[in-house]
What does this fold into?
Amino acid sequence: MRIDWKTVMAEAERLAGRILEKGIDLNEAEKALKFFVQHGYDEDRLLRYLGVRASDPSFSRSRRTPGYFRGLREIWSGWKTDLPPRWKGIAWGWAIRIAKYRKEGM
It folds into this structure.
């Protein structure tokens, strides 16, 4: 199945807006993406991971980190799309790139 780039990029644009709107640290968003990819695009496992990172302060370097992961969990669980999991990962990666670009004001 070929990637539908138009849909992937439209989703990436929406996600970038949500990530920036919630003030999520982009490094934490990248960590979540890496976990998702490394664990075979398993959406349930990603949600569990985000939940643990949001609720267990022993994983956090700062007091803000759990909030970033709560925000990521909200975004992921509220993301209504027909994209297959692998394409969701691609869209998520592009969303991070777009968010970085917007954040830097370019």
